[in-house]
């Protein structure tokens, strides 16, 4: 959702022309330096090019962050209060008992993360691992589920949805020094007990952008694109219409209301079997206990530090946002 939001804020902004020109210039210089480096055979000169490339990339990161900060600050300053069902569970035929132990460990880790953000745990549920016994080490769980409430909780925890793979020695056998145990993380918005009325939904909705293009249809009228977001459930909708803006806004709200009602009417059982049918296969990160490393797509940090210092996970999320911001810039520039 954030990607779409920033893209359309860029597209509709009339006050950031200078910043965009600066970004274009830095991107052009960066690409030119990379091209020269590839064609340069002298190792020392290639090192000099690399230093300059790093400088321009740092400048690009700073300029992008400043531009998006100004865009966002003009729209909103406070993250919405969101209630999330956050689940950690074993993956079918993935590590068995040891995955259950890992579920417990991950649950304890995320409890610290909730505390780091000062989020409130509204409820807690756990399902013990079926085949464990009193001699089992590690207190294995098939499922641990939290109901968490906090500012921006859904937007942040959605980044954790997927497969988390651990590599370590078994706690309960003498074999398998470097075994891999996978667990899945799942999150979704908590459905409100009392449904919002259509007027309440309309009040909650945020119109991210409205854009009109004259002559965009056969009869020469105005084509309107509306982008709206429901911060309560994290839902996003893009609506294309023609003609009267107010009428199109009404129709867009009607469509979003139907989308919200469809989500509310879904029968969520919150069981492991149900969650397994909706597993994201995206690999979030690998926790290598044998080398004391946590490896994600954009960083590697010491495992012992990662599990105790919640600022490290927050930093990984920030780095992901910076990467997304750069992609948004390139997407935007390629569209104009």
From TrEMBL:
Residues 39-66 form a coiled coil. InterPro entries: PCRF, Pep_chain_release_fac_I_sf. One of its GO terms (biological process) is translational termination. Pfam families: PCRF. Keywords: Coiled coil. The keyword Coiled coil applies. Signal peptide: none annotated. Residues 32-170 form the Peptide chain release factor domain. It comes from the Eukaryota. This is Peptide chain release factor domain-containing protein. It comes from Oikopleura dioica.
